[in-house]
Structures are given as structure tokens and as C-alpha cells.
Design a protein that fits this description.
Among the domains are: 8-139, Butyryl-Coa Dehydrogenase, subunit A, domain 1 (Orthogonal Bundle), CATH 1.10.540; 159-279, Butyryl-CoA Dehydrogenase, subunit A, domain 2 (Beta Barrel), CATH 2.40.110; 448-580. Helix content is 56%, strand content 10%. It contains 18 helices and 9 strands. A hairpin with a 5-residue loop joins strand 4 (180-183) and strand 5. Helix 9 packs antiparallel against helix 12 (423-431) and helix 10 (340-372) crosses helix 17 (547-563). The longest helix has 37 residues, at 279-315. The radius of gyration is 24 Å and the shape is globular. It starts with 7 loop residues before the first helix and ends in a 12-residue tail after the last helix.
């Protein structure tokens, strides 16, 4: 039996204590009246929807998959009804502007919603996951008439959106795309070409589908600088279907309930979004939102794996434990969670899940501050820091989602390898997140070459200052003193690593590309060290009777002792990257 319950208690801890988000909400006119009880009421209702509506469809949707007949996609049984319930609950409108029919709530609550959706049913959430990014893209770049016509449809859930980048010959290198857009007399454009791997490109959930499509105008330059962005609705206002059709769906390793479509555009009517030949700039508003949400997929998978592994380990009895920590005499067969190897795995699952949550919600909270902070400098710094964290969260979180699903499967033993317990589905579903929305290797290059070397370490130094500040605060709290000292040491190591990267990049142009993967993982571990140091420190402000006070300190100490030393391996990797990689030669 696969179950999911929203981790509301830890969510509240992160919002109320780790972030102190209510304090920021009180200072923002946009969030006037929002407090912890109201925020938790919203998340409680979202949790009920996920556990009662979405989670029961997770395994059945995987078994059934999508069906494709005569250009139409039929999603698994129950998916369309679940979407209607999602719309009736007002969830598409959560973090959208009130003047457009939205609820105007913070993006940090949207992040919590996304975590729950992906934890309970990743495949179903693929249909809704891009909607908020499309909303932001149109809100910032679309002509006013397009905003007035289509944004209310996204907010209400009448329309779902897609992101159409990939073509058969153009994957990560979008500069190779060939899709063409010809200007028309009425100001629209006629788009023709093929797109591949389009999540939700055809489905039976929403009344309309809004395709955001990258294509080339006739005067476009070669490469990525010649790309423009267009909005292409599936259905036009006069009721006609547009010139876009699905000619097949992929049969995949995981997320089988998500329709991954091949689309053919045949003089489809579309409208330019943003400036000509600057489509990537407009699309990146959508992609950055998507990358944060993909990172939250890793968190969702880790949380679901942790919950179910813990439950199974408490029920399954195997062998006699060498020592029971509760003092009870060992029996012929003890629950798995008393065995040291399994206890170690379960502690890692808890430490990673709760650490990712704090760090991921922080990134979403920074997006709120980038829009709502009262001072321009604070808004700029929040935007810069969120930009630095985005590739870390996308790549490191998704890697952990897959790794922790594998760790959890080990707890189940042989049962984990069969469909009865569904942890094998989590392992399969989680793997895609390391590939799409920019592979994790591309995220590593983006972090090191663009976000660190590209701005001469300005954003990194801002983060290093925050790490140092947190370390000093922790050192002043006796139970957290050692954590603060170690965080300070890790911040110094990251500083030295950055300086070494700068030096060797100047001597060897390929060095940063070889070093990027280890640098990102070093940053990911340092981010979790920061998350756990702060969690342990602020937990000391809780009443002594609150079990979270001791649990947060205990888990932080476990993370620093057992998991953080992995950072040393990535520091060594930065040194190893000074040696050139040999070429493999050409195939005969």
C-alpha cells in the first residue's frame, strides 16, 4: 500500500521559524492579512486534495498510462475528474494576481503546493506544473490584449499550457531549431514545424491548451539569437481547432500517466510574445519557474520515499537487532528500523527531505522578496540570490530525489523491486527530473560559468556572507556551537574552491566545464549544511516540550557527521579536474 500525507508540521516549522515568513508578509501590502494560521489552512486543504484525490491515482495511472487514438490523448482513469476538482478548489489561482482572478498568495505557498502535488502523483502534476511559469511569462512579456484574453484562462484553469522547445534535431541546443513563423496581414504569425517531448501537448483535462512555442522569423539570424516566442492556442476564439496536431506519444520509463507528445504545427496561428528574436529572454521567465518546480519534484519524491520507507521499516520484522535503542530486550525478529544499517538509511532520508524543504522554500521566499520587498536594493539582492540558487536546486534536488528513492527501495528489500509496494515507481518517475528543463550537467555549467564566473562571484559572495552570518549566530547558541563552527569552515572551503576555480579557468578554458559538476554538488551540500544549521538554531526557540526542538538538533548533528563529509570528495574532484580528460576517439 502506497500512502502520502502532507508533512504539514514541518512545513509550518519552515514557514514560521526557519523563514520567519509571516514577518515578511506583514511588511508587504500584497500579502496583507496573511498569517501562519491562514497559510496552514491553505496547505492543509491542499494536502487533503493530494492524499485523498491524487495519491490513489498514482499507481493506477502508472499501470494504465495514456492512450493515443486518431490524434487524441486519453489520460488514465480519474485524471480528468481530479483536474476538475483541482480547478474547483481554486488551486491554479493560488499565487496569481488578484486583479486577474487569482488569490494573490506568496510563491512560497505555491512551492509547498507543488511539493505535495509531485509527491502524491508526479505524472498528473506534469499537466499543471508549467501553468504558473506560463502565467509569469505572459504577464511580463505578452502584449496587453494577449494578457487580457488568455491570462484569466490560465488563472481559472480553463486552459493549461505547454513549453514547446525541443525538436528532433534540437534538444539542449535550441539554436538548432527549425520551426518557422511567417508574419500575417492581421498581425499574427503562421507557425510550421515539429516539436518533440512536449508534456501535455495533447490531453483531455482542460478546455484549451496554450502552446508557448520557440520559432524563427524569416529574418532570423542563425543560432539562439534568432529565436522568437509565440503563443499558439489549440482552439481559436471562433471555435476552430488551430493548425497544431499530436502525431504520437512516447512510451517511457516513468511518469506514464503524463502524455509526452510529438506535435506538428501546420501554419498554426500564433502571436508574438516579447520582442522579435528575443524569445529565449521571454521563455527564461517560464523556464526559471519550471526549474524551481522541477527541483521541488526531487523534494516530493524524497518525502514520499521517506514516509513509505519509515512505515514499512516499522512493520517489517527481520532478524534480531544487535541493540535496541529503546532499551527493550532484543527479540527473535525486530522491526527493520532497529537495525543500524536501516536506521542509517532512514535518518538520511529524513535529513535530506527536511533539508531540501527548508532550502527550496527559501528560494521561493526569495522570489516573493524580489517582487515585494520595500527597498529596491533588497529586491535586487533577492533576485540575484534566487538566480544563483535555481540551478543548484534544480540539479541537486533532483539528483537527491532519485538517490533517496533508491535508498528507500533498499529498505523494502525484494518487495521494493516489485510493483506491489510502488517504491519502484517512485524510482522510475524520479529519474526524468535529472534530464528535462535543462539536464543537470547544463545546470552545473550555468551555475559555474554564468552565475559565478559570469558575474565575478558577486552573487556567490552574497550567499557566503549569509553563510557566515548564520554560522556566527549558531556559535552563540550552546547546543549549536559545533554546527556553527563547521558551517563556518565549510563556507571558507567554498570560498577557497571558488578562488581556485577562477585561477585555473584563466589557465585552461575547458577547466570550468570539467569542474562544474563537483562545484554544483559542493554548493548543494553547503546549502543543506546552512539549512540544517539554521533549523537546529531556530528550533531552540521552541518550547522544551516541543519534540521538534530536539529532533531538529539531532537530525542536524546526523547530517553534519554522516552526510556533509561527502563535500570533501567534491573538493577533491575540483582538484582532479585540473587534469585534462582524454578523448575517446571516433567510432570506426
Amino acid at each position: 500500500m502506497w500512502t502520502y500525507q502532507a508533512p504539514l508540521r514541518d512545513m509550518q516549522f519552515v514557514l514560521e521559524h526557519w523563514l520567519d515568513a509571516p514577518q515578511a508578509w506583514r511588511q508587504s501590502a500584497a500579502f496583507d492579512g496573511l498569517d501562519t494560521p491562514l497559510a496552514m489552512q491553505v496547505l492543509e486543504q491542499a494536502g487533503l486534495f493530494c492524499s485523498e484525490v491524487l495519491a490513489p491515482l498514482n499507481a493506477s495511472g502508472d499501470r494504465q498510462g495514456c492512450r493515443f487514438t486518431d490524434g487524441k490523448v486519453q489520460t488514465p482513469d480519474g485524471f480528468a475528474q481530479a483536474y476538475r476538482a483541482y480547478v474547483e478548489g481554486g488551486w491554479p489561482a493560488l499565487a496569481c494576481a488578484a486583479e486577474l482572478g487569482g488569490q494573490g498568495l506568496p510563491q512560497v505557498l505555491e512551492a509547498a503546493l507543488q511539493e505535495m502535488l509531485y509527491a502524491s502523483n508526479h505524472a498528473w502534476a506534469m499537466y499543471t506544473g508549467i501553468a504558473h511559469g506560463a502565467y509569469l511569462c505572459l504577464k511580463h512579456h505578452a502584449p496587453q490584449w494577449v494578457q487580457s484574453r488568455y491570462l484569466p484562462d490560465i488563472v481559472s484553469g480553463q486552459a493549461l499550457a505547454t513549453m514547446c522547445l525541443t525538436e528532433p534535431q534540437a534538444g539542449s541546443d535550441v539554436g538548432l531549431l527549425r520551426c518557422r513563423a511567417l508574419p500575417q496581414a492581421d498581425g499574427s504569425h503562421a507557425l510550421s514545424g515539429n516539436k518533440l517531448f512536449i508534456s501535455g501537448g495533447e490531453q483531455d483535462l482542460s478546455g484549451n491548451i496554450l502552446h508557448l512555442v520557440l520559432a524563427r522569423l524569416p529574418d532570423a539570424a542563425a543560432g539562439s539569437r534568432g529565436i522568437s516566442l509565440f503563443l499558439v492556442p489549440r482552439q481559436l476564439d471562433d471555435g476552430r481547432l488551430n493548425g497544431v496536431r499530436c502525431d504520437g506519444i512516447e512510451h517511457k520509463m516513468g511518469i506514464k500517466g503524463s502524455a509526452t507528445c510529438s506535435l506538428v504545427f501546420e501554419e498554426a496561428q500564433g502571436w508574438l510574445i516579447g520582442q522579435p528574436h528575443q524569445g529565449l529572454a521571454a521563455m527564461f521567465v517560464m523556464m526559471n519557474s519550471a526549474r524551481l518546480h522541477v527541483g521541488l519534484q526531487g523534494l516530493g519524491h524524497t518525502e514520499a520515499a521517506w514516509q513509505n520507507a519509515l512505515q514499512y521499516a516499522g512493520e517489517r520484522r527481520q532478524m534480531r537487532a544487535p541493540q535496541r535503542p529503546d532499551g527493550v530486550a532484543a527479540s527473535a525478529a525486530d522491526p527493520l528500523h532497529y537495525h543500524p544499517a536501516m536506521r542509517r538509511t532512514l535518518l538520511e532520508l529524513r535529513a535530506i527531505s527536511e533539508g531540501l524543504r527548508a532550502a527550496g522554500y527559501w528560494a521561493a521566499h526569495l522570489l516573493d522578496q524580489a517582487e515585494q520587498a520595500s527597498e529596491a536594493q533588497a529586491r535586487a539582492q533577492a533576485a540575484q540570490l534566487s538566480g544563483l540558487l535555481t540551478p543548484i536546486i534544480k540539479a541537486y534536488f533532483t539528483e537527491q530525489g532519485f538517490r533517496q528513492a533508491s535508498q528507500a527501495l533498499q529498505v523494502f528489500g525484494g518487495y521494493g523491486y516489485v510493483a506491489e509496494f510502488a517504491i519502484e515507481q517512485t524510482l522510475r518517475d524520479s529519474r526524468i527530473a535529472m534530464i528535462y528543463e535543462g539536464t543537470n550537467e547544463i545546470q552545473a555549467n550555468d551555475l559555474l560559468l554564468r552565475k559565478v564566473l559570469g558575474d565575478h562571484g558577486e552573487a556567490l559572495q552574497q550567499w557566503l556572507h549569509i553563510l557566515d552570518e548564520e554560522a556566527r549566530l549558531a556559535i552563540a547558541v550552546p547546543p549549536c556551537n559545533a554546527l556553527g563552527v563547521e558551517l563556518q569552515r565549510r563556507a571558507e572551503s567554498l570560498t577557497q574552491a571558488w578562488h581556485g576555480v577562477v585561477q585555473h579557468s584563466a589557465e585552461d578554458a575547458e577547466y570550468p566545464y570539467r569542474a562544474a559538476g563537483d562545484f554544483l554538488k559542493l554548493c548543494g551540500l553547503t546549502l543543506l549544511a546552512f539549512a540544517w544549521c539554521r533549523a537546529a538554531r531556530v528550533a531552540q526557540n521552541l518550547p522544551a516540550s516541543d519534540p521538534q526542538r530536539s529532533a531538529k538538533l539531532q537530525t542536524a548533528q546526523f547530517f553534519f557527521t554522516w552526510l556533509l563529509p561527502e563535500a570533501d570528495r567534491h573538493l577533491a574532484g575540483l582538484y582532479s579536474a585540473r587534469s585534462p580528460l582524454p578523448f575517446l576517439g571516433t567510432a570506426s
